[in-house]
Amino acid sequence: MTAESKEQIFSELCAHYGFPGSERFMKILMKLLSEEEAKILLLLPGTAKDIASKTKISKDKAVEILEDLDRRGFIVPTGKGEGEETEYALCENFYDGILYYFGWKRVRGEKLSDSDIEILNLVEDFANNELLPAFADAAEMRVLPVNEAIPTEFEVLPYEEVAKIVDNAKVIAVAPCPCRTERSLGHGERCPYPLLTCMQFDRAAEIFIKRGIGVKLTKEQAKRLLRKFHEIGLFSQIANADHGFEFICNCCSCCCDYMNLWRLYGKLVTSKSRYQAVVDENLCIGCGICEKRCHFGAAKVKDGVCHVDPDKCFGCGLCTITCPMEAIKLVRVRGKEHIPEKAGWSLIPPLPSYEELKKQLEKGVIEWEYVE
Questions:
Q1: 317 close to 162: Cβ distance less than 8 angstroms
Q2: Main-chain phi, psi angles of 311, to 5 degrees
Q3: Around Cβ 125, how many Cβ atoms within 10 Å?
Q4: Peptide bond connecting 20 to the previous residue in cis, omega within 30 degrees of 0
Q5: DSSP code of 83?
Q6: Beta bridge partner(s), residue 270
Q7: Considering Cα of 273, then 153, then 293, then 250, what sign does the dihedral take?
Q8: Which residues pair with 251 in a beta bridge?
Q9: I want to staple 48 with a disulfide (CB 3.0 to 4.6 A). Which of 62, 142, 356, 359 is the partner?
């Protein structure tokens, strides 16, 4: 096979993933996939039987290749068929899929190779310049307030309370944070926060557990873990919706993709919670703990007292749970209408057929699957 024909295959694959003509994405794919794997990906959606009928490989070999591509984040089951008859499609969120795989290698204790680090840096460059701007409008998020910080005198909606969201899940898992994998592991593990912080529910959790890149949790384990994340200073985000949740992100400002989108392009896709932090100046001693814990730059100590900028406060509540004087509280400043009545977006949705995808590209937007 000539170099030119190889490039043509990978160029076509870039288009099938929704990024026609992307040299950055092509470079990543050519480092991660063999030509045989790329050809198989171009035949999807389909089953192992479909692949075997269109190529010279056996059905058993096709099953093996498809399961491996699923584990590495390039494809996802569509929900049709089981076992050897499972239908697969390209994974729309291939970006996170690739990063989950690399993050899990580190969680297992493996040292990432120079080649792994190079790929992570290529993925970061692609994300910053092409992927994040393309999906900014689809990936709407909302900050979840810390459970212990929510004032009891207000009605708390079930879709803004971490504990209730966990209780409503049937299956729960935790996996490596893709943002921290990319922006920390790719740069000498510069982030001080733990890697295993991305929590999935139901369909997403089942897929991650099956892939071997997620740890199954009980509801009590999940709640304890979330409390620990908040104690050490991570804030939680969820899809900006009132049902159909597949994940909770536990984020830091140095790695979070949504924070980087804000910094790089001024595009804010994260909605504030319905709450805001306020300070009792009579109790505040100006210790500065809140300022250090605020990821949004809202809390600042001046003249010995903390002041919270309401425009910058996202209502996460991290400042309230470690204040030694209990001088900071959350108050509700937004009504129920602040949270849209819709389903959350799927963490790892399948892409449609290439013909349907081309129609979406012609319209200028790729439609993201939502959880019903």
A1: no
A2: -70, -30
A3: 14
A4: no
A5: G
A6: 141
A7: negative
A8: 235
A9: 62
Topology of the domain covering 1-91:
Arc Repressor Mutant, subunit A (1.10.10)
- How far is it between the farthest Cα atoms of the chain? 77
Q: Which of 24, 229, 214, 248 is nearest to 119 (CA)?
A: 24
**Looking at residue 220, what is its pLDDT?**
97
Please provide the size of the chain in residues. 372
Q: Which two tokens stand for residue 65?
A: 């290749």
* Residue pLDDT, tens place only, 177-188: 999 999 998 888
Contact in structure between 111 and 282 (CB atoms under 8 Å): no
DSSP labels, 27-65? HHHHHH--HHHHHHHTT-SB-HHHHHHHSSS-HHHHHHH
**In 10 A of CB 89, how many CB atoms?**
20
- Helical packing angle, 23-32 and 3-16, nearest 10°: 110
Residues 182-187: contacts with CB under 8 Å, at least 24 apart: 182/99, 182/120, 182/123, 182/124, 182/127, 182/255, 183/124, 183/254, 183/255, 183/260, 184/254, 184/255, 185/102, 185/103, 185/106, 185/112, 185/117, 185/120, 186/117, 186/120, 186/121, 186/123, 186/124, 187/121
Instruction: Report the phi/psi class of residue 198: left, alpha or beta, with left for phi > 0 and alpha for psi in -120 to 50.
Output: beta
Rounded CA separation 108/133 (Å): 32
Helices (H), the chain: 3-16, 23-32, 35-41, 48-54, 59-71, 94-107, 114-126, 132-135, 162-167, 178-183, 202-211, 219-232, 257-265, 289-293, 354-363
- The DSSP result for 282-343, as a single string, is TT-----HHHHH-TTS-EEEETTEEEE-TTT-----TTTTT-TT--EEEEE-S-GGGS-SSB
Q: Could you state, in order of their start, the residue ranges of all structural domains in the chain? A: 1-91, 133-272
- Please write the tens of the pLDDT for every residue from 48-100: 999 999 998 999 999 999 999 999 999 999 989 888 899 999 999 999 999 99
Handedness of CA 351, 85, 216, 149 (dihedral sign): positive
Q: Tell me which residue has tokens 């912080």.
A: 197
- Give the type of residue at 282: N
Judging by beta carbons within 10 Å of its beta carbon (0-12, 13-18, 19+), is residue 283 exposed, middle or buried?
Answer: middle
Cα gap 260→255, rounded to integer Å: 7
pLDDT tens-digit map of 246-270: 999 999 999 999 888 888 887 788 9
